[in-house]
Specification:
Elements (H helix, E strand, L loop, with lengths): L1 H10 L7 H9 L3 H15 L7 H12 L7 H27 L1
Length: 99
């Protein structure tokens, strides 16, 4: 999230290290960038174990306790593509129609 927000802000000459720049960017005319980056990180981060910290942490804890977890590819094919991708498509459609 932070990498993409930094890149979006840099496109407009704003510095991520200046809190006033971040506030101005997030509340101003560039709000669409912030919403897009936020949705992308939350929804697409869930698509893999390494996409966000909690996914990897839950997998590690479960394996440590002896629970059989799917491999990286199995997770993507059995769960991410089947359940998460349709949700992402619906969110995209709703955001495209509403936004």
């Amino acid at each position: 999230y932070l990498n993409f927000l930094t890149a979006a802000m840099a496109k407009f000459g704003k510095d991520i290290n200046a809190p006033t720049n971040v506030i101005a960017f997030a509340t101003g005319e560039n709000l669409a960038y912030v919403v897009s980056i936020s949705l992308g990180s939350v929804f697409f981060g869930a698509m893999t174990y390494i996409g966000n910290g909690p996914n990897l942490m839950v997998k590690s804890i479960a394996e440590h306790l002896g629970v059989t977890m799917p491999s990286f590819i199995a997770y993507i094919t059995k769960y991410a593509l089947v359940y998460l991708l349709p949700v992402l498509c619906v969110v995209y459609f709703v955001m495209k129609v509403v936004g």
